[in-house]
Amino acid sequence: MGLITIIIIAFALAMDAFAVSIVSGTAYRKLKVKHALRMALSFGAFQAMMPLIGSLAGLTIREYIADYDHWVAFGLLSAVGGKMIYESFKIKPADDKFNPSNVLVLLVLSVATSIDALAVGITLSFLKVSIAVAVVIIGLVTFILSYLGVFVGKKLGHFFENKIEAIGGIILIALGIKILIEHRFF
């Protein structure tokens, strides 16, 4: 798996965090740079940690499933992508009490948006990717998109939120198919 593919995965994984950042941007009455930085740091850090944890878990089972790891990678990426597409069509009611500045809310959002990265980390361990490079890229892309997302949300509101999450899901499914093609099972 090349650097370009890792970057594409990073963008796909960051779509959840980007969408939540957009929604969060709409919640701030007086948006300050520190709000965007706090959210971006939290999302970026969790998004970077989860693939590392997933990769370590994957390393423990890799030898047992080496003959069909590409199918497991395809399944995980497709499941995560399908979940993202499904969630993009769900109607999410606005919550007037939503406060993204609250530390507990921010932690919950950070974990929720990075769970998909855990499954992708397992996949990366099967593909023998440099996890250090992947973690840095995933964390950095998520940081940048989350930071920008808060300001996009302040300006444009909910217009892009669902579409972005669906695009991320489609990208992950496409990458799963690419893995199968690379192993010549299609």
Features:
186 residues; mainly alpha; Growth Hormone, Chain: A; 6 helices; 0% strand
Structural notes for this entry:
By secondary structure, the chain is mostly helical. It has one domain (about 5-90, about 100-180): Growth Hormone, Chain: A (Up-down Bundle). Helix content is about 80%, strand content about 0%. The protein has 6 helices and no strands. The longest helix is centred in the first third of the chain and has 29 residues, at about 35-60.
Write the layout of secondary structure elements.
Blueprint lengths: L2 H25 L5 H29 L7 H21 L13 H24 L4 H26 L4 H22 L4
Helix pairs in contact: 1-2, 1-4, 1-5, 1-6, 2-4, 2-5, 3-4, 3-6
Mean pLDDT: 82
SS class? mainly alpha
The SSE order reads: HHHHHH
What would the CATH topology be?
A: Growth Hormone, Chain: A
Measured as a percent range, the helix fraction is over 70%
- What proportion of the residues form beta strands (DSSP E)? under 5%
Could you say how many structural domains there are in total? 1
- Parts with pLDDT < 50 across at least 5 consecutive residues: none
